[in-house]
Amino acid sequence: MLDELDGLLLAELQRDSSRTLRELGEVVGLSPSAVQRRIDRYRTSGLITREVAVLDAGLSATAVLTICLVTLRYESDQHHAEVRGRLLAAPEVQQVYAVSGDYDYVVVLATAGMAEYRDAGRRLFQNAPNIQRYTTLVVFDPIKTSTALPVTIG
Amino acid sequence: MLDELDGLLLAELQRDSSRTLRELGEVVGLSPSAVQRRIDRYRTSGLITREVAVLDAGLSATAVLTICLVTLRYESDQHHAEVRGRLLAAPEVQQVYAVSGDYDYVVVLATAGMAEYRDAGRRLFQNAPNIQRYTTLVVFDPIKTSTALPVTIG
DNA sequence: TCTGAAAGTTTTCATCC
DNA sequence: GGATGAAAACTTTCAGA
C-alpha cells in the first residue's frame, strides 16, 4: 500500500528522475536512505517499469509522428494477438492502445521521415491481414508528451 | 551534428537511462568520461528534454486512460491557443497532439478513475467553448507506451 | 576528442532508534 | 518504518596524447 509520501515521490519521479536521493529527500521531507528504500520498493514491485530519457521531437529534426486509428476485421483473440504481435515487433511503433469505442487500436508511429512512414503504414496496415480499415492522423505538433499517471494512495 | 555513436547512445538512453556511465560506455564502446561529455551535450542542447520514471499503468490500480479525438469549431490561431492553454493547464492531460486529418487534436487523459474521467471530459470538452465535437476511446489495455524517437544522424 | 587517474559525490548497507 | 555513518561505487575533473 502507498501513503501520501509515496504519491508525492512518485509524482516527482515521473516529472524528473535524474535528481539525487538527497534532492528528492528534500522535496518530500525524507532522508536520502528513506527515499532510496521507497524507490527500491517501487522498482522491485514493478510499479516503476523503467527510467528513460525523453527527446525533443522538434529537435529530432526529421522525425515524423503519426497516429493510426485501426479497426480489425475479426474480433477473435487469435486475430487480436496476431495484430498485436506484428505491431510490437515493428521498430516504428511507439505506442499501442487497445481501446473500446469507434476503433480497436490507437497506434502512434515514430519514423525518421515521411517515406519511412509510408513504408510502415503499408507494411503494418495496408498489406496486412485482419485490418478492416485504418485512418491516419499526421502529427504536426506534439504539444505535450508525458507518461505521468495519477497514483492512488491508500 | 550527430554520429552513429550518438544514435546508439540516444537509443540506449531512451530505452533505459538508469545505467551508469560505465555500463553505457561498455554498450557503445566508449570510456565513461566520453559518454558523459556526449550526454552533457544532449542535455544542454535540449535534445534530451528530461529523464523520467515510467509507471506500470496496470499496477497503478485504478488509473483510467482515455483518448479523445477532438474537432474545433473555429480554426483561427486564437481559438487553437485557447484550447491548448486549457488542455495544458489540466493535470489529467497526459499527451496532446495537434494533427491533420479527420480531427484537430488527439488528447490522452490519465485519471484516477472513471468518475474523474467524466469530470475531466465535461470540463475540458463538453462545457468548453470552441469544441465542435469529440469522441472518447476508453483504453482497456495500454499495450506499449514508449516515447522513443528515431534519431537521424549526419 | 578520447583515455586514464585523482578528487569529490552519491549510493549502498549495516546498525540503531 | 526512519535516521545515521562508514564503505563501496559512481561521477566529475583534469592532465596527457
TrEMBL record, chains A, B:
<keyword id="KW-0238">DNA-binding</keyword>
<dbReference type="Pfam" id="PF01037">
    <property type="entry name" value="AsnC_trans_reg"/>
</dbReference>
<dbReference type="InterPro" id="IPR011008">
    <property type="entry name" value="Dimeric_a/b-barrel"/>
</dbReference>
<feature type="domain" description="HTH asnC-type">
    <location>
        <begin position="2"/>
        <end position="63"/>
    </location>
</feature>
<keyword id="KW-0805">Transcription regulation</keyword>
<protein>
    <submittedName>
        <fullName>AsnC family transcriptional regulator</fullName>
    </submittedName>
</protein>
<dbReference type="InterPro" id="IPR019888">
    <property type="entry name" value="Tscrpt_reg_AsnC-like"/>
</dbReference>
<dbReference type="Pfam" id="PF13404">
    <property type="entry name" value="HTH_AsnC-type"/>
</dbReference>
<dbReference type="InterPro" id="IPR036388">
    <property type="entry name" value="WH-like_DNA-bd_sf"/>
</dbReference>
<dbReference type="GO" id="GO:0005829">
    <property type="term" value="C:cytosol"/>
</dbReference>
<dbReference type="GO" id="GO:0043565">
    <property type="term" value="F:sequence-specific DNA binding"/>
</dbReference>
<keyword id="KW-0804">Transcription</keyword>
<dbReference type="InterPro" id="IPR036390">
    <property type="entry name" value="WH_DNA-bd_sf"/>
</dbReference>
<dbReference type="GO" id="GO:0043200">
    <property type="term" value="P:response to amino acid"/>
</dbReference>
<dbReference type="InterPro" id="IPR000485">
    <property type="entry name" value="AsnC-type_HTH_dom"/>
</dbReference>
<dbReference type="InterPro" id="IPR019887">
    <property type="entry name" value="Tscrpt_reg_AsnC/Lrp_C"/>
</dbReference>
